[in-house]
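Example 4.3 (complexes with small molecules)
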Amino acid sequence: MNTFLSSEQVQYQSTCQAFVDEKLCSQGIIKDLETSKEKQKEALSLISQSGLIGTSLPHEYGGGGKTFVYAAILAEQLGMKDAGLSLVLANHLSACHLIWRYGTDEQKSRYLPLLSRGESFATLAFGEEQAGSDFSLVQTSAESNKLNGKKAWVVNGDTAHVALVLARSSEQNQIWIVDLTSKSGVSVVKDRQKLGLKSASTTDIEFSSYALDEKSALCQAPEKVEEAIEYALSLSKVLLAAGALGICEQAIKYSVQRANQREQFGQTIGKFQAIQWKLADMSTETSAARLLTYRAAWSKDDAKDEFFKFAAMCKLFAARVARLYSGEAAQIYGTLGISEEEPMEKLYRDAKVIEVLEGTQEIQKNIVASQVGA
Ligand SMILES: Cc1cc2nc3c(=O)[nH]c(=O)nc-3n(C[C@H](O)[C@H](O)[C@H](O)COP(=O)(O)OP(=O)(O)OC[C@H]3O[C@@H](n4cnc5c(N)ncnc54)[C@H](O)[C@@H]3O)c2cc1C
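Answer. The structure with flavin-adenine dinucleotide bound is encoded below.
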């Protein structure tokens, strides 16, 4: 399973797994994550203190100096227990890497050390009610150094300290680094309830004459804004795909257990070829999704020209595989597959949401098509 990871990466994977098991699972945090904001905050603070969160960020700004593959490893391990945590990590790290790549030296020194150490948390606030797939429709404005408008579906909008906000000024989009802890001009206006990934608190944020510091514009070259948006979303997609792998792994594990235990018509259901073929497809396509996802994570640092394409492909494929096979896992469980007493229904709900965010499946196809020259 790990032939493409180095021995150091395999070691890191074990460290992440131990953290998730010992800190998040055995202390009973995971089981209430969907419903308890308190537990969500507790999980966030444990992840922040784990020393794992900044592994893929640069040494000079307090990170571990490792590649983005390490971020994918952590996202996958979190996704094994709750893919909502992979989403939280995805937003945080995308914002961090965005600042690292496009920010000024002053912005990097100001924000990255705290974010790398998990002493503050970041998120992306790009989308709006009317601007989901099409960011040219963004209405939030940053005219005369005042930010006005409403960003929708912001992960951790109620707990993050820093948001990278997409806003329009002089008919052009810019990304602004915004302090969400500011007492004036920023408020959480709506708590979004959703089908899955419920452990990732998601809110709308409204800015009302929020005073922008001119130095907080991220991209010094305006022509870089489009690229920066795609870069942030690509980072996020890879980590979400890694979370989807976690879902697939769980679906396989539980399905095999059930197939070997449940008896009907005088034999365990795993003896039926119909069930065996589901397990074979699940395992095969999960392995393919894993190769694609880690290929994308690797290309972020080592094959930069291909990063956007592989990020779109891995999110498209891993999300589809997770949704399809968490559904098949539920099918193998029969009635218990749709029962809240068993984990299948949650895996299925989480996987469906991954198909929608950070660009829908259709948008990923558009990106892949344009990347291959169509
Ligand atoms: C749980 C969750 C968390 C999120 N977190 C964040 C966040 O932290 N920050 C943030 O900024 N946003 C966030 N979002 C927003 C998310 O990125 C958008 O919901 C997503 O991009 C879809 O936008 P939309 O709902 O407006 O769909 P629309 O753009 O209205 O699309 C509707 C349908 O039309 C299709 N479609 C649209 N355009 C095309 C096209 N050109 N070709 C083919 N089909 C097309 C879509 O695929 C989709 O099926 C989050 C969303 C969710 C659900």
